[in-house]
Specification:
- There is one protein chain.
- The chain is built from eight helices and seven strands.
- With about 180 residues, it is an alpha/beta fold.
- The relative contact order is 0.20.
């Protein structure tokens, strides 16, 4: 009993974290699903807020007509630009327990309810999972009857893929959704 009390004091219960609402519109043709927002993203209440995450830089490189510096623009400007491109963002997990930002630290996840997504996004053509942890739940998104793709994670933790290699994979998915 004493040992259990000591270990509880050393590693207190990790609090339950709650994700961000979907960033989608009726114009969304490609939905990009991450696993769960990073510590930086949760703190700022912004998708892909960590400055080393390549998400916004990759999208800026895919859409050559994008305003220069969209990856450095305000979150409101980036969000409006993203939606205007026919893109949407959400996460596989609605909530979880996690210390830090790594997907490997996710415990007790609760998957988002994707059932109403087709009504919110009637033009949806493709679901793209940003990384392996997100893609582990492709069975849920496949029930929507749309093509589902696994993309290399834009996270700084995914250092095994170069920016150029990530960009090529992401460009292919954007083209498959009819956005290029």
């Amino acid at each position: 009993m004493v040992k259990d009390q000591q270990s509880a004091a050393i590693s207190p219960q990790t609090p339950r974290l709650f994700g961000l609402p979907p960033l989608v519109s009726g114009n969304t043709r490609l939905l990009i699903l991450g696993s769960f927002p990073s510590v930086a993203s949760l703190a700022q209440q912004q998708y892909y807020a960590h400055p080393q995450n390549q998400f916004w830089r990759i999208l800026q490189a895919i859409f050559p007509s994008s305003p220069r510096g969209i990856s450095a623009a305000s979150y409101e400007e980036r969000s409006a630009w993203l939606l205007a491109q026919g893109l949407g963002i959400w996460d596989v997990y609605a909530s979880c327990e996690r210390a830090g930002s790594l997907d490997t630290a996710i415990r007790q996840p609760q998957v988002n309810d994707f059932s109403g997504l087709r009504l919110r996004c009637p033009q949806l053509q493709l679901i793209a999972h940003n990384g392996g942890e997100s893609f582990r739940h492709a069975k849920y998104t496949a029930t929507l009857g749309l093509p589902v793709r696994k993309l290399p994670s834009t996270s700084p933790a995914n250092a095994s893929w170069s920016f150029e290699r990530k960009l090529a994979a992401w460009r292919e998915a954007v083209a498959a959704a009819g956005l290029l």
